[in-house]
Amino acid sequence: MTKLLHIQGMRALAVMAVFVFHANSDWLPGGYLGVDAFFVISGFLMASILVNREPSNFKDVLFFYKRRLSRVAPAALLIAMLTIPVAVIVLLPFELRDYSASLVGVVTGTMNIMVANNIGYFSPLAEIQPLTHYWSLILELHFYLLIPFVFLLVKSRKNQLLSLSLLFFVSLIYAHYLSQYEANDAYYLLPSRAWEFLAGSVVFLLNLKPKKTLSPLITYLSLAVISGYFIFFTSEIVHPSLMTLPFVLATAVIVGGLSTRPSEILASKVMVFLGDRSYSLYLWHFPILILVKQYFEIDAVLFVLAFVLTLILSIFSYRSIEQVFSQRGTYFVSKAKSKMLYGGACSFLMIVGLYGFQSKGFAETWKSYSSEPSSKAYDNYIRGKRHIDPPKVADACVYADAKEIFNQVTRLDLCKTKHGSGILVIGDSHSFGIFRALYHLSITNEANNPFLVAWAKGGCGVGSDRPDCFFSKLVEKPDFIAKYFKLVIYVQRGFSEKQYTKVDLFLDELSKRSRVIWLGPRQEPLVEVRGHVKDGCDVEVKVDEKHMQALSEINKDIELRSQVRKYEFINSDLYKMPFYANCSQMNWKDTDHWSQQGIELIAPTLNELLKSYLVKH
C-alpha cells in the first residue's frame, strides 16, 4: 500500500509540472517532463499487473487489453467529445481541420503519429489544439499492446528481466540517435520512448526479491534531480536521449520505492488526492488552459482559477467516469451498456472528425457568421499556403531536396551537361521562399533558371550543431558545390556570434570557387496569422517593430564585416516585404515565412537585386 501512495504522489508531482508548463513554459521550462514520469510509472504498474496475473495464452492478453481500455478510454472519449464546443469557439477553420483530424486520431490510435508528422509539441500550432496532449495517451496504448507478449513468451523472471533490460538499452540508444535526426519521430513514437516505460518495468522486476532498502539519501537525491530537470531542462535540449536518462532513473528510484523515505515525502493526503485524479487532471487541463488563454494573459490569479476549475471537473470525471467503468460493484457498467457507450462515442468522434476534415474545418459555416473582412483574410491565407513548386520528376533539374545530397551526383551531372552550371539556394527553411521566388521568375519567363536546386531544411544553417543538418558534412566539401553551381545563394534566419563566424568562413572559402551571395536575415513581422484572420483584412496589422529593428541592426553589422570578404552580402532592407497583408492578399503564411502571394510580390525585386549585384561585382 505504501508503494501505491508514493506512486500517487509522484503522479501528482508529474501532472502539476505539466500543468504549470502548459500555463506558462517560462515558469517551469522542463515541466513537460512530467509526461516522461508518467511513462515510467506506467511501465512499473504494467509489470506489476502482468506479474500478478501472468498471461498464459492470447485470451489472457485480450483480458489485459480490456482492463486497460476500461481504465483509459471512457474519460478520454468523454473529454474529447466535450472539447468539440471549445474547439468551435476558439479555433479558426484551418485549425479546426487539424482538430478534426485529431478526433480521428484519438479513435484510431494514431494521434501521436499525426502530431509527429504535422505539428510538433513545441510548435505554436500545438498550443491551440485541445487534444494535442492526447498523444501521450495513445503512446501508452501502443506500449500496452506490446508489453504483455514479453510476459507471455518469456516465462522465467530472470529472462524477463534480461529481455526488458535489453529492450531498454536498445530503445535508449535508438532514441539518442533519432532525436538528433528526426526529432518529432523520436519524441512521439514508441520505439524511441519505450525505454522510459521499460525503466519502470525493470525496477519492478528488480524489486521482486526481498532486499535491504537503500539509504533515504537516495530519495532526496532523486527528488533533487527531478526538480532540477523540471526547473532547468528546456525544449532546446535533445530529448528523449541520454540527456534525459538521469531524470528517468531518478523517477524509477522513487516509483520503485527503493528506500523507506518516499512515503513520508510524497504520500501526504493532498498529494495522494491529486495523484488519484491525475489522469482526469491531465485530460482536462489542456482544453481549459486553451480556453482561458484565448481571452486572458495567464497570471498567478488566473493560474489558480484555471487549476481550481480543472480540479473540479477532474473530481467529477474521476468519480462519475473513471470509477464507474474500471471497478466492479455499485458503479459497475454492464458489458452491453459499455459496448454501446464505447461504440457510440467512437462513432460520434469519427463522424465529426471526418466531416470536419473534409469540410476544411467547417469553413463555409464559419464564413456564414464571420465578417466579410475576416472571410477575405481567411481566403487569402488559404490561397497563400498553396505554394507553386516544380513538378517532382526524378531527373528534373529544378528541385528542392536536401536528403542524401552526395547521392545526387548522377542527377547533378546530367543537369550540368544539359544546362551548364546551375544556381544553388542553400540554408534553413527561409531558403524555400527564395527558391520558390526564382522558380516563379522562370515559369513567368522573367528569368531563365533551368538548373535550380535548393538544399534547405528548417533550422539548418552552417553554424548549426545538429547532426541531422546537411551542413555538417557539406562544409568540408566546397569543391563539391563549385563543381555543379556557378552561383550559390545562402539564406539563414538569425545568428549568434558563433554561428556568424562559421557562416562567414564557409562562404568566404566557397566564394573562391563560385559566385556567392548571402541574403541577409529578412525582416519578419512575427504576426500570428490567426490574429489577422480574426480581426479582418481591413484592420491595420501591428508588426513587432522591436524585432524588425533588431534584424535591421544584424544586417548592418554583417554588411559592414563582409566588405573584406569575397562573397557578396545583400542587406534585407533591400528586399523587405512592403506590407503584411490587405484585403487582396496576405504576404506571410506564418510569423516568418512568405506566402505564395508574398513570393510572387517580392520575386521581381529579388530578381533585379541579384542581377545588379552580379553585374556590379
What does this entry look like structurally?
By secondary structure, the chain is mainly alpha-helical. The chain has two domains: 2-363, no CATH class; 383-616, Rossmann fold, CATH 3.40.50. 63% of the residues lie in helices and 5% in strands. The protein is built from 26 helices and six strands. A six-stranded parallel sheet has the order 1-3-2-4-5-6, sandwiched between helices. Helix 23 links the parallel strand 4 and strand 5. Residues 328-332 have low confidence and may be disordered.
Mean pLDDT level: 89
Tell me the distance between the termini.
Answer: 79 Å
User: Spans of 5+ residues with little confidence (pLDDT < 50)?
Assistant: 328-332
| Helical proportion, percent range | 55-70%
Shape category: globular
Strand content: under 5%
- Tell me how many strands there are: 6
Number of domains: 2
**Order of strands in the sheet with most strands:** 1-3-2-4-5-6
Radius of gyration: 27 Å
By secondary-structure content and strand pairing, the structural class works out as: mainly alpha
Largest sheet: 6 strands, parallel
Number of helical segments with 4 or more residues: 26
Briefly, what is this?
With 617 residues, the protein is mainly alpha-helical. It is 63% helix and 5% strand.
Topology:
Elements: H1 2-23, H2 34-52, H3 58-90, H4 93-108, H5 111-118, H6 135-153, H7 157-179, H8 183-188, H9 194-206, H10 216-232, H11 245-256, H12 262-266, H13 269-276, H14 278-295, H15 300-326, H16 335-358, H17 363-369, H18 372-385, E1 398-400, H19 409-419, E2 422-427, H20 430-443, E3 452-456, H21 471-474, H22 478-484, E4 485-491, H23 497-510, E5 515-519, H24 529-535, H25 545-561, E6 568-570, H26 596-616
Parallel strand pairs: 1-3, 2-3, 2-4, 4-5, 5-6
